[in-house]
Amino acid sequence: MNVPKMLRSFKYAFQGIWVLMQENNARFHLFATVVVVLTGLLVGLSSDEWAIISIIVGLVWVAEAFNTAIEKLCDFVSTEHHPLIGKVKDLSAGAVLIISCIAVIIGIIIFLPKILANL
Ligand SMILES: Nc1ncnc2c1ncn2[C@@H]1O[C@H](COP(=O)(O)OP(=O)(O)OP(=O)(O)O)[C@@H](O)[C@H]1O
């Protein structure tokens, strides 16, 4: 096991997270994540519910990171307008939208009954 190489890889991965955090969408995801965690603490989620919320929030972040990577690669590959680059970017953004919609549905299923019970 090459520990220095592994530590370097971690450094690059954290650099990637830093790049991601410069994106406007990532800042919105950060805001949404904080709201979800605070609401979860307020309404008192079970460990199963925290596990589900963690998975879905993580999936949204992973999708956004890949979307950002694909966007940057597209911008590098073609500085000009090209219909195929447009499709690649739209597909990548579509993937984030799909998982975000699923996250909203899961959020409603888990949070709504608890919020209504606390009213
Ligand atoms: N080079 C291109 N060729 C064709 N269509 C493009 C190109 N760049 C962007 N588009 C279209 O514009 C949409 C938005 O692209 P992009 O996310 O790069 O723009 P933006 O939202 O202004 O960028 P950023 O997120 O960096 O502010 C894409 O989904 C795609 O439909």
Textual characterization of the structure:
With 119 residues, the protein is mainly α. It has a single domain (15-117), classed as Helix Hairpins. It has four helices and no strands. It has helices at 3-21, 24-43, 47-77, 83-117. α2 (24-43) packs antiparallel against α3 (47-77), α2 (24-43) runs parallel beside α4 and α3 (47-77) runs antiparallel to α4. It is flat and about 55 Å long. Adenosine-5'-triphosphate binds next to α4.
SSE layout and pairing:
Elements: H1 3-21, H2 24-43, H3 47-77, H4 83-117
Helix pairs in contact: 2-3, 2-4, 3-4
GO molecular function, one term: metal ion binding
Cofactor: Mg(2+)
Transmembrane segments: 28-45, 51-70, 91-112
Shape: flat
CATH class reads: Mainly Alpha
Bound molecules: adenosine-5'-triphosphate
> What summary fits the major beta sheet?
none
Q: What's the total number of strands?
A: 0
Assign a percent range to the helix content.
Answer: over 70%
Mean pLDDT: 96
Residue fraction in strands: under 5%
Distance from N terminus to C terminus (CA atoms, Å) equals 55 Å
CATH topology-level fold name: Helix Hairpins
Order of helices and strands: HHHH
**How many domain units?**
1
**CATH architecture classification:** Orthogonal Bundle
Residue ranges: pLDDT <50 for 5 or more in a row?
A: none
Q: Could you tell me the radius of gyration in angstroms?
A: 18 Å
Q: How many helices does DSSP assign?
A: 4
| Class from secondary-structure proportions | mainly alpha
Binding site for a divalent metal cation: 23, 71
Active site: 64 (proton acceptor)
Pfam family, one: DAGK_prokar
Protein name: Diacylglycerol kinase family protein
